[in-house]
Specification:
It is built from 49 helices and 29 strands. By secondary structure, it is of the alpha/beta class. Strand 22 and strand 23 (about 865-875) form a beta hairpin. Helix 10 (about 210-235) packs antiparallel against helix 11 (about 245-265) and helix 45 packs across helix 47 (about 1130-1140).
């Protein structure tokens, strides 16, 4: 492959800290892989790959990089098969440290657990489990606080509490705790916030970081506004300009500059006095006919914009005197301090709860790693530890991918293991700050920008190289992106100024063609505030703006895939053009919630296959809600909504009329102390329906018309056929729920779910519904989540139902299952999901959606540098008002959020390879087009004060539109009436077709051949159904156990003469051995099947209180009690009572790691068996068992020796 000059420079640079700013599509992954290959294969002393530490952002990226490196090494080995060093690298690649930072931390902790106060057998907690654990701990902490009820906590609860629930307080505490975890030393950050608050309460505002930020921002705003006022003044002085405005504009410029200088002085008091004097004189009347109306309007509009911005700044930041600002901070000091204390208490309690369960979360991984890699000096500073020094010596270079998304914790980790402190910088960082879109995960793009601004562009120990050439997109796409971002991405808003140095330059090769390919960027907009839209009739008005936008996109997709005049795209693999198809197209959305469902429905209605994967809505899917309702009913049937959901579902199949009749009979029969709701109605029918049927006279029934015949249920006359149908369904419901309730007593939840799927047929039913494969995948995911739940610290159906309820309470969602579908369909995904991907045709939709600024308007605002702030609350007047500090932090959060949105827009637009189509709707589109048509630029960019006032992506593109040449971006305003008319016509045609289908005679056969095909398909039976119960993989121990099914206990462990009758499917009954059958011995135990005996033992052990079983008499009594209470069947009891003739075995078990991920279980016996030691090892597969070499401390192998079976040892038979 031919590399560009800068790419080659990146590949060859060594022995330095190197920051690579790699623009979208610049081939950074390929360059990174080539650099690694070069380091391990070239030079006189090439490195081994395990001398490199490569940190990626995702596991998928790590896997891809490992595969690429492996393929590159194999290619070099084909060229030089005798190279021993390359063979070694090929062998080392599977163990190479190419991983996410979380994986690195986990690996380090497992190797240094002895330096930490943790159990080496820890596990990473499941997201749901940890969410519930946080909730439990939070309830406990708040309960303790309520018990003490000190004044500070009561004030805190008044400030942050809401209604009868503590949820608002819990959210605030969790928000502060989560934020603190992004700091390398969370408690240290909390203490800094406290100290900062104390200092501010003493009256020292000007030295605080938030005040310095606020005054810098005000100075910047006033400077820009003064420049815009000066521009208006220049136009007024021009020939035919509105010269009468000059005195007022001069005063404006003077006053704005005065405020800017006061803010730049760093004194809030000076700013306060200056801004208090801000006024704007009324413009003089400009009636002269010589004045150009356009210039007059331009100056007037510009001055209005300046006036509004300046007055907003005055009203927001200049309304509080210095004294009032200090007093406001003092009044919030107590609640902030209580909050910081609560965060510490929660953290300590949560840490202890995790320790009890031996689980860690991902925050723990990073912070425990820091404990391993650093030690605290006497003066409180932390320095790299011995372990960090060892890692520094091991890794010749640390390579960090997606560096722009690192946070402070990760930066500290990297610094602790680098050789920077030794004067040998060796960190390679690659990323693009323009694509930093994970601030909501507390990423700090400032870390990238600090190095970007300070590293040298020349050869040095700390160097920065810019990769600008884009090898992904056509020039037509890149040119438009550059045109827009030259104007809207500024240093003050996006974190970096978009210049020729950071712009995108085409590097991809696309052959010239006369076919329709490489069209200009399309910008489709629609005004949903027009009179035409308002005047639509009620039916058409229901067609929402989102549906209209989806319709616009559907029209474009049809145009692109048209057989005659469709779009052609370049096929890189085939090196030729081909017609565009659905799978070439993707629709990108800023937010999937509420949008993806609409787009999928509209596209499918238009005959365009579409798929969308969301991170929300899983629990709202009909199939998951139905199964969860059934689990709730199995757990507790006295719940109206879940029971009604199950009865109405396809599992039972009650109709609306049947439900109404069932409840009506119950309502008219309602008595005191009777069960209530749907459960009560069910129980009433069980009580009175059989009696009502038996009371009827059979002779009279024969004379009645079956269609009109009535039966009296309670006080209500019900059609007999309806009542019979209701009763049948209730009987079925009672039978299968009772059976499942019995199963739930001993089955894990995930196995219970599989029982539900099989017994109700619901799994097969949903597969036949629209999107059946996705629905089945959702049910499979529910079983997977239940299996994962079984490995948590929670157990049983009761807890699982509460587990799901709490997940809903805490807004934890899994998102619908992904099928990994590669079919020919249009994909719909979020912009964040698309990062790192590329698509031939990109539709950037929903551009009119308003930015989400809710975080900046919460009760509590937090900033890593500026600290914490809350509203000042007057308990007497019951009023709240934001403090000056809170407004400063809000301003910073808004700017950071806007900068993030700007970078999200950049990521979305750079996903397109060949065609980019942007779409959006707005109720004020006409006004915005007019407002920003002649927007003045400052140094080629839209003023920062104007950009920060945007509310959507659409606003930014409309601002930049005037400066984008028409040939680079085609703007089209779509007429809504046309789209709506087409949709109404489609719906009418659909209605007519439905009516025609409903008129067909269902008993008549219209197509004999189709009937035969349907009969054949619906009557098909899978020939290997019995084998579906087998596990795909089975351990050696499981095979051994299954081979003994159906044998006498005294024969278990001996060889079988014939294994042909052994079935691994435990549900099938086993025949007795041939020798016993010939002798005619039909003893009770001989006829018992192994699965039955195993189930009986398992059921007894699950239900018995083992700690209470002290002797044989107690055991026999407990077994009888279980039988009488219905927990054991008669056959199971009779089998077990015969076996309860031994003594209780007492032993202590130890689990000992013995390497290769194997664990030995050592049993040391007490009592009559004192002195016996048995050790057992479970193997993952047969090959592991065969290759196993026992440790020297292992003794004789007694696996097949019956003397060591529990059944014999319990009889007092000492081996």
């Amino acid at each position: 492959m031919k590399w560009t000059e800068k790419q080659q420079q990146v590949i060859d640079s060594r022995n330095r800290n190197l920051l690579v700013s790699a623009a979208a599509g610049s081939g950074k992954t390929a360059v990174l892989v080539e650099r690694i290959i070069s380091m391990i294969s070239e030079g006189t002393h090439p490195l081994n790959i395990d001398q490199l530490l490569v940190m990626t952002f995702t596991n998928a990226a790590a896997s891809e990089m490992r595969e690429r490196i492996g393929a590159a090494v194999e290619k070099k080995l084909k060229e030089d098969p005798g190279n021993e060093h390359l063979w070694l690298q090929s062998a080392l690649i599977p163990q190479a440290k190419i991983m996410t930072i979380d994986s690195f931390c986990l690996d380090l902790i497992r190797n240094h657990y002895n330096a930490l106060d943790i159990d080496p057998a820890f596990r990473i907690g499941d997201e749901g489990e940890l969410t519930l654990l946080k909730g439990d701990v939070m309830e406990q902490v708040l309960e303790e606080c309520y018990e003490t009820a000190d004044d500070g906590f009561l004030q805190f609860s008044e400030q942050f509490g809401s209604g009868k629930s503590d949820k608002a307080m819990e959210d605030v505490i969790l928000q502060a705790w989560t934020f603190s975890q992004s700091h390398p030393w969370p408690n240290q950050w909390l203490d800094q916030c406290r100290q900062q608050m104390e200092k501010e309460a003493e009256g020292d505002l000007d030295s605080s970081e938030w005040m310095r930020f606020l005054l810098r921002d005000i100075s910047l705003q006033m400077g820009e506004l003064a420049a815009q006022a000066e521009e208006a003044l220049e136009v007024a002085r021009e020939e035919n300009g509105p010269f009468v405005y000059e005195p007022m504009l001069m005063n404006d410029v003077s006053r704005l500059k005065k405020i800017r200088e006061a803010a730049a002085s760093g004194s809030y008091e000076a700013f306060y006095h200056a801004v208090s004097e801000l006024t704007f004189d009324r413009l003089a009347a400009a009636r002269s006919k010589e004045i150009d109306p356009e210039k007059k309007a331009y100056v007037s509009d510009l001055r209005i914009r300046v006036k509004k911005a300046a007055e907003k700044c005055r009203d927001t930041y200049g309304s509080q005197s210095p004294e009032a600002a200090i007093e406001g901070i003092r009044n919030t000091r107590i609640v902030i301090q209580v909050l910081l204390d609560m965060v510490k208490r929660f953290d300590a309690a949560y840490t202890e709860a995790k320790r009890e369960r031996n689980v860690l979360d991902f925050n723990d991984l990073e912070h425990l790693t820091l404990q391993v890699l650093t030690v605290e000096e006497e003066d409180g500073t932390r320095v790299p530890s011995q372990a960090a020094g060892e890692l520094s010596g091991q890794y010749e270079e640390i390579l960090v991918d997606e560096y722009q998304d690192s946070n402070l914790v990760q930066e500290t980790l990297i610094q602790s293991i680098s050789r920077e402190r030794l004067g040998q910088p060796n960190v390679f960082m690659v990323g693009d700050v323009k694509q930093s879109i994970y601030r909501f995960r507390l990423a700090r793009p400032e870390l990238f920008m600090e190095k970007y601004d300070t590293y040298s562009r020349e050869e040095s120990s700390h160097q920065m190289i810019e990769l600008q050439q884009n090898f992904r997109s056509r020039a037509s796409v890149l040119t438009c992106i550059n045109d827009i971002f030259y104007q809207i991405m500024t240093k003050n808003l996006g974190g970096i100024r978009y210049t020729e140095e950071t712009a995108l330059y085409p590097g991809a090769a696309f052959e010239e063609t006369e076919k329709k390919a490489g069209i200009p960027v399309q910008f489709l907009v629609a005004d949903t505030g027009t009179e035409a839209f308002k005047q639509l009739d009620e039916e058409a008005a229901d067609y929402t703006a989102r549906e209209l936008e989806a319709k616009m996109i559907a029209e474009q997709i049809k145009s692109f895939t048209d057989e005659k005049n469709g779009l052609y795209v370049w096929d890189k693999d085939g090196q030729s053009y081909r017609k565009a198809c659905y799978k070439d197209m993707v629709i990108l959305l800023r937010s999937m919630s509420g949008w993806s469902e609409v787009f999928v429905n509209v596209l499918m209605n238009e005959g365009i296959p579409a798929t969308a994967q969301t991170r929300t809505g899983y629990f709202a899917t009909a199939e998951v809600e139905t199964v969860l309702s059934l689990l709730s009913v199995i757990d507790n049937p006295m719940q109206d909504i879940p029971m009604a959901a199950v009865l109405r579902s396809p599992m039972v199949g009650m109709t609306d009329d049947e439900m109404a009749w069932m409840i009506a009979a119950y309502k008219r029969y309602l008595q005191k102390k009777q069960d209530r709701g749907v459960y009560g109605a069910w129980k009433l029918w069980e009580e009175i329906y059989p009696q009502a049927v038996s009371d009827e006279n059979p002779d009279e029934d024969e004379k009645k018309d079956p269609e009109t015949e009535q039966i009296r249920i309670g006080q209500v006359e019900i059609p007999k056929a309806t009542a019979k149908s209701i009763w049948k369904k209730l009987e079925y419901f009672a039978a299968f729920t009772e059976e499942l309730r019995q199963d739930s007593r001993y089955l894990p939840v995930h196995e219970l779910l599989y029982q539900i799927y099989r017994k109700t047929g619901y799994y097969d039913y949903v597969s036949s519904m629209p999107a059946g494969e996705t629905r089945k995948a959702n049910l499979d995911m529910l079983a997977e989540k239940a299996a994962a739940y079984a490995s948590t610290s929670y157990r049983g159906l009761f807890h699982f139902v509460r587990y799901i309820e709490k997940l809903k309470k805490y807004d934890t969602d899994f998102g619908e299952a992904s099928l990994g579908d590669e079919s020919n369909s249009v994909r719909i995904m979020s912009i964040h999901k698309s990062k790192g991907l590329e698509f031939p045709v990109v539709f950037l939709a929903g551009m009119g959606k308003k930015f989400n600024k809710q975080d900046a308007y919460g009760q509590l605002l937090l900033d890593a540098d500026l600290g914490a702030a809350a509203d000042e609350m007057d308990l007497n007047l019951r009023t709240k008002a934001p403090t000056l500090k809170k407004m400063a932090i809000r301003r910073r959060m808004e700017l950071e959020s806007m900068g993030e949105e700007l970078r999200v827009l950049y990521v979305a637009m750079t996903r397109a390879k060949e065609v980019l189509v942007m779409t959006g709707t707005d109720r004020s589109l006409e006004n915005k087009l007019e407002k920003w048509d002649q927007l003045s630029l400052t140094d080629g960019q839209i003023p920062y004060t104007v950009l920060s006032g945007a509310n959507s992506f659409l606003d930014w593109v409309l601002m930049a539109k005037a400066a984008v040449p028409a040939g680079h971006m085609e703007v089209k305003q779509v007429q809504l009436t046309h789209l709506i008319g087409r949709e109404l016509q489609r719906q009418l045609e659909k209605k007519n077709v439905k009516e025609e289908l409903l008129k067909l005679d269902t008993k008549q056969v219209y197509d004999e051949q189709m009937k035969e095909q349907l009969d054949q398909a619906l009557s098909y039976e899978y020939p290997y159904l019995e084998d579906t119960g087998l596990y795909t993989q089975m351990s050696v121990s499981e095979l051994k156990k299954q081979s003994q099914i159906g044998r006498e206990e005294e024969n278990i462990g001996t060889e079988r003469k014939d294994l042909s009758e052994v079935r691994l499917d435990h549900e099938h009954e086993m025949e007795p051995e041939s020798s016993e059958a010939e002798d005619g011995k039909k003893q009770t135990e001989t006829g018992k099947k192994g699965a039955f005996r195993g189930t009986a033992y398992h059921r007894a052990l699950e239900c018995l209180d083992l700690l209470a079983v002290t002797d044989q008499r107690k055991l026999e009594g407990d077994l009888l009690d279980l039988f009488q209470r219905g927990f054991l069947t008669k056959e199971a009891y009779e089998h077990l009572i015969v076996k309860a003739d031994g003594t209780v075995i007492s032993k202590t078990r130890y689990r000992i790691p013995i390497g290769n991920d194997l664990t030995a279980e050592l049993d040391i016996f007490d009592g009559a068996l004192n002195g016996i030691l048995l050790v057992e090892v479970e193997f993952p597969d047969e090959s592991a068992a065969r290759s196993f070499i026992p440790p020297k401390w292992f003794g004789e192998d007694v696996t097949l020796d019956p003397r060591y079976h529990n059944s014999n040892m319990s009889k007092g038979i000492r081996p």
